[in-house]
Amino acid sequence: MNGITDSSKRWIGIDGGGTKTSCVIGDRNGHILGASLTASSNIHSNSHHHVKERLLHLIIDVMQKTDVSYDQIEVIQMCLSGCDRESDKHTVRQFFQGTEFEKKISIANDAIAALYAGTAGAPGIVLIAGTGSIAYGLSKDENNPVRIGGWGYLLGDEGSGYHIGQMALKSVLKSFDGRGSNTLLTTMLMEHFEIQNIQEIIPIIYGDQFTRTLIGSLAEIVMKADESGDTVAKNILKQAVLEKCLIVKAAINQMDEEEMSIVLHGGLFSNDRYKKMFCIQLNSEMNTKLNIINPDIPPVAGAYILALKQSNIPISQKVKNQLREHYQPAADRC
């Protein structure tokens, strides 16, 4: 006998994104007992050595913080960006080969963590609108996940922060040429980049400092211009909303459900004006009954929920309430 009881068993959830990786450890009843944080764990944008070190650090850190032994750990659920394909998951599994954690590791894409943060383990679609853009859906059987978009900034990411920022830059340059309408975005972008002439923006965009995040961050400026009544900015956001609706509709059509929960995730939806615009447009286009959710717990809690599900533990109302109480923000639905 190892003295391990149900009450002393623990589950670990890890949510790994492009900029940071979060980890929590909890019991079977929704009590989050410890947490840890580290840098990005995307295997396509970081060295495998660094990703392995970071993931191991998180696991060991939360175990030490909560005085938990290896024998108490039931499941370590990793939901990681860049782990869509089976070959990606195999790469991460190899990090733990020969370690005491090897048989307790479960790997999924980070979109599932975001989905379950909104649905508490129930079926639905998560629409991610940050620098990039993707929808990920799970139906009731959970065997055939649906993935729409996520093709990256060169081939897709329609309706994303990057797409909005790119449309803003194009609109300003067209205005400068006389090919487009005058817009507040010209002055706002010049102030943002601290330049005296819009032509000076070219070496910034095409220079060594270019990043997708740089352009994606311009979405906030577009939203401010829209709030100030700028027609060009409003049209940019309308186009982004329409693209987002197309992504959701494509996912719903593949899943063929009469009712559907849509979880909103990502920085764009933190703007209430944009979120309301999207919700109104989506509801006007759909025949399916929609339950649109802004999660009140973070994605790492969704990874923890998936860990519990791996052990066939029901996600009861008690578990949901305990998680909400831990993270506290009020539910926000539209």
Task: Detail the topology: elements first, then pairings.
Layout: E1 10-16, E2 20-26, E3 32-39, H1 48-65, E4 73-80, H2 86-95, E5 105-109, H3 110-119, E6 124-129, E7 133-138, E8 146-149, H4 152-155, H5 161-177, H6 184-193, H7 201-206, H8 212-216, H9 219-227, H10 231-255, E9 259-265, H11 272-285, E10 289-294, H12 299-310, H13 317-327, E11 332-333
Parallel strand pairs: 1-4, 4-5, 6-9, 9-10
Antiparallel strand pairs: 1-2, 2-3, 6-7, 7-8, 10-11
Helix pairs in contact: 3-12, 5-9, 5-10, 9-10, 10-11
Keyphrases for this structure?
334 residues, alpha/beta, Nucleotidyltransferase, domain 5, 2 domains, six-stranded mixed sheet, five-stranded mixed sheet, 13 helices, disordered C terminus
Question: How does this model look, in words?
Answer:
This is ATPase BadF/BadG/BcrA/BcrD type domain-containing protein. It comes from Jeotgalibacillus alimentarius. Pfam families: BcrAD_BadFG (PF01869). The structure is a single chain. The protein has helices at 48-65, 86-95, 110-119, 152-155, 161-177, 184-193, 201-206, 212-216, 219-227, 231-255, 272-285, 299-310, 317-327; strands at residues 10-16, 20-26, 32-39, 73-80, 105-109, 124-129, 133-138, 146-149, 259-265, 289-294, 332-333. It has 334 residues and is α/β, with parallel strands linked by helices. It has 2 domains: 6-122 and 296-333, Nucleotidyltransferase, domain 5 (2-Layer Sandwich); 124-256, Nucleotidyltransferase, domain 5.
